[in-house]
Each structure stands twice: as structure tokens, then as C-alpha cells.
Amino acid sequence: MRVLIALGGNAMTSSDGTARPEDQIAAVNSAMNPVADLVAAGHQVILTHGNGPQVGNLLVKNELAAPVVPPVPLDWCGAQTQGTIGFIVVNALECALAARGVERGIVAVVTRTRVSADDPGLRTPTKPIGRFLPRDEAQPLIDHGQVWQDRGERGWRRVVASPEPVEILDATAVSTLMTAGFVVVANGGGGIPVVREADGSIRGVEAVIDKDLGAALLGRTVAVDVLVIATDVEAAVLDFGTPDARPVGRVDVATMRTYAAQGHFAGGSMGPKVEACCRFVEQGGQRAVITSLGGIARAVRGDVGTVVVAAP
Ligand SMILES: Nc1ncnc2c1ncn2[C@@H]1O[C@H](COP(=O)(O)OP(=O)(O)O)[C@@H](O)[C@H]1O
Ligand SMILES: NC(=O)OP(=O)(O)O
């Protein structure tokens, strides 16, 4: 089976969100065990990953260093996160496969995702990135012109522009490598957002695409059967955070859209995961699963987490 696994920020950082290198390496090492099991079982696997904590940290570094080092735009920061996260994922998966006696080429592809220059998401910041801060520490940054949002019990987080992914420009490279037998890491952070100019040239735009929406598009573009969104909860939950909370198991896409319209899934976290699953299935994918890292192997069989399918 052809499977796309989308790894959330939680798979790649410590729970405090600081994204220290050693924490990222440890988290990715552990995330690659179930992925290696799938590869060893004969599945064709593509990996994609979030970059929210990492791209936010890079942006802060840029801003702090600006007096001495020329700052680079946000799309460059996104490209840099594809490089570093791809690097540690390839290292970790190679090691996990070797432990299972499997030799397989693994490659990380710098992936550009086309967006529309007049996407309203470029004007209104919605995508949370970087560290969580208490309100009083975020306030001076807000006063300085940054946009921050109250993200609940973990604190406040900076938000940036986040357009819809329209086209994965490097999808042919991804497909070709996959068909040649490589495990491909692609479209990290939802892809580097770019627009195509009237003269045909490509220009990066300062934004961060939602990696789950990017994953749904990549998944259909390269015709994977199953999309697995691995995060830090076992399933999408109705009435999340209330005494009536209950997980969604196997569900048809129309019912899932009704739940979403009823407001069960928070924006910037579970909301885009649910939207990604619905799009993937509506566009012909066999099933899309939201589950924890531990559920990745079972998710391919569809017997764990929230499993979105076309019909009841
Ligand atoms: N209805 C819901 N069901 C489950 N989790 C939810 C829901 N609404 C919001 N969440 C939150 O979504 C989080 C997962 O999203 P996010 O933190 O963006 O994950 P990742 O970084 O793994 O992509 C969970 O930890 C949970 O706190
Ligand atoms: N780009 C993106 O959606 O990253 P996270 O999943 O880490 O938020």
C-alpha cells in the first residue's frame, strides 16, 4: 500500500515546544520506529512533517541578528527547516531500518508549493509558529507589531500568514523517487510557499502553509492510498476538553464535515487535520487517519484513531 505519514510538531520536539536539537533528534528517532516497521512490511512510504516550532525559532533568530547579519525572508526560513528536519529524519529512519535488516534509499526533497497571490490567508495571520509565551511576555512583541494569539492553556503564540496550498511543484520528483524505491521525505511545513509570476518565474512568499493541508494535496497528487496524520492525541474528539468528550472512530466524510461545521475541532490544531482528512477522501483517497505516533502501523489497516472514509 502507498502511505503518506504526516508527522506533527509533537513528533519532532519536546512538549515545552522549545525545539532544542537534542530533543528533536530524540523525538524523531522514536517516531521512525513505527515508520520503519511499515517500510519493512513492504509499504511504499512518503513522509511529511510540520515545522511550526522550528520556523518560528528561525524567524526570531533572524530578527535578533538583523543588525549584524542580513535577515532572510520567512519562505527561506521554511526552506531551511525542510533541510534540517529532512536531515534528522533521514538519519533516524536509516538507523531504524538497519536495525530491522532493511536497506533502502531515503531522500529528503526540498519541495515548493504554489499558492495564489491573492489568497486572503496572505493578509490575515492564522498559522501559529514558534514558542508559546505567557501573555505578559508576548505583550512587548505585540506592541512591536507582531500578531500573537491566545492558544489556551499552553499560552500565547505568534501567528503568521498561511495561504491554501494549490499545487505541489516538485511532485514529479517525489513520484519518480518513490517509484524508484526511495522512501521520500517531502513537502515539510506544508511546502515552501511560492507564487508563479506572469513571466513564469517563481517567487517565494512570506508565509507558512499548514502541513496537514499540504499533506492532503501531496497525497492525492502522488496518488497515495492512505493518509496518516500522527499527532499527540489518539483521535479527534467531539466536545473536546469537556466532560462529554468522546473520540470519533470510523466516520464517513459527510458526517465528519458536519462535526467540523458544529465547531468541534479547534482552528490551527485539530481543525486543519480534519479538513485535510476530508479533502483527501473526497478527492479519491481510500482513507485518512488521525492517530498518535504509537498508532501509525495500525492506522494503515484502519483499526485505530479517527478513520475518515468516503461512505458509511
Ligand atoms: N476536537 C479535538 N480533538 C482532539 N484534539 C484537539 C481537538 N481540538 C483541539 N485539539 C488539540 O489539537 C492538538 C493537536 O494539534 P497540534 O498541536 O497542531 O498537533 P501537531 O503539532 O502534532 O500537528 C491536540 O494536542 C489537542 O490539544
Ligand atoms: N507548517 C505546519 O503546519 O507546521 P506544524 O504542523 O508544526 O504546525
UniProtKB/TrEMBL annotation:
Claim: rRNA processing is one of the keywords in the record: no
A GO BP entry: L-arginine deiminase pathway
Pfam families: AA_kinase (PF00696)
Top-rank lineage group of the source organism: Bacteria
Cellular component GO terms, alphabetical: cytosol
InterPro entries: AceGlu_kinase-like_sf, Asp/Glu/Uridylate_kinase, Carb_kinase
Known catalytic reactions: hydrogencarbonate + NH4(+) + ATP = carbamoyl phosphate + ADP + H2O + H(+)
Residues covered by the Aspartate/glutamate/uridylate kinase domain: 1-292
GO molecular function, one term: carbamate kinase activity
Record keywords: Kinase, Transferase
Family indicated by similarity: Belongs to the carbamate kinase family.
Protein name, as recorded: Carbamate kinase
Protein's organism: Phytoactinopolyspora alkaliphila
Lineage, uppermost ranks: Bacteria, Bacillati, Actinomycetota, Actinomycetes, Jiangellales
